Amino acid sequence: LDRKTVTELAESLRGALLLPGNDGYDTARRVLNAGIDKHPALIVQPSGATDVRHAVDFARAHRLLLAVKCGGHSYAGKSTCDGGLQIDLSTLRHARVDPNAKKAWIAGGSLLAELDRESMAFELVTTAGTVSHTGIGGLTLGGGFGRVARRFGLALDNVSAVDIVTADGQLRRASADENPDLFWGVRGGGGNFGVVTNFEFDLHPMQRQVVAGELFFPLDRARDVLGFYSEFAAVAPDELYCDCLLMAPAGGAGSPMAGLSLCYTGPAARADAVLAPLAKLGKPMVDTVGPADYVRVQQSWDDSDPRNSGEYLKSGFVDAIVQDLVDGIVDGFEPDPGRNTMLYFQHSGGAIGRVPADATAFAHRGSLANMMLMINWPLSTDGGPHVAYLRSCWQTLERFTDGWYTNEVSNEPQRVINSNYQGNFDRLLALKKRYDPENLFRLNANIRPTA
Questions:
Q1: Which residues does the chain have with pLDDT short of 50?
Q2: What is the 3-state secondary structure (H, E, C) of 266-318?
């Protein structure tokens, strides 16, 4: 690109255009996984949808690799790139709530904390993840689990409309009445179809005070905890969200533990009865369960996801936690002083599973939980042995899974990505050919239009 071409792009924008060496460039290009270190040639920080349109037109016209960054949580670094153009949506953050209509309008670069803060001010809520600095765009377009998903559905189930800039540079509104095919596709098709500049969410009444916290036991109780969870999670009421964790901190920072993290959002009078089965596990070494403010609960795991180290993850949906899976987890989970190691079940089911698999592009409606095995290690050390451990361990667990969360896409073969969309793939492929025939938006769980 010559200087005149780049200058013309800068002059077309109300927001900033950052080049290598500019103030703010290094902050914008980085994602939360510090092991990803890429350098876009240009970074556009849009002030609105028109800037996004100009950036998309520029990337298409000059055949540039295009990355779109919202919260930067992609483990595989899909929201940045080398040598291409990055659209950094961190300058496009705003949340507005209409309590009478029970609606929220959220700018496409917003973080989940903004949605929780504004909606809970009126004791209204929608599903918004479990880490408040997650970006609204990536979370919602791929699915959107969270502490109230079993009660109110995935984040994408609560979207009533989006404004989206597609690959031709057009700003389109997609809803049940306008561009309904595109509306279907963006709810589970990830970033394959464009850049969402605004989301419209349905909100639900919910009291601000909930019952939440963690119970942790020594790691040698892992088999007991997993066995209990396999039964408890399957029969829990929609108002109860309960995850199961095995954790082994690096360098003696704490004792390896197995435990549960829960959030009950139903009537306070029923809380004791719903949580009574937890007593079967006996006295925990850590017990923080009690009344809590929902917004603070939503922020409680923020420090668990700092991404200031090398990271690697594998995940898959499980429909049941059978004994062979429990045995495989306990036998394969290996603490190591050189890394943090975690195995994590994120609770699904409830309202999520009552939506037909073809109602949205998100097909994985039958799961009990999303099982994740993740590690991180200091960037100053060699991550190779740790990644090798995780891959080996995951090979023994993967057979119990049925597909994986598209938001956690890494470098899977194309046939694996295609099959993961299950019965919705053919319809998604047709949409991709219509809205992005040149595959401009490909840094995602990509649907190649030439498939």
A1: none
A2: CCHHHHHHHHHHHHHHCCCCEECCEEEEHHHHHHCCHHHCCCCCEEEEEEEEE
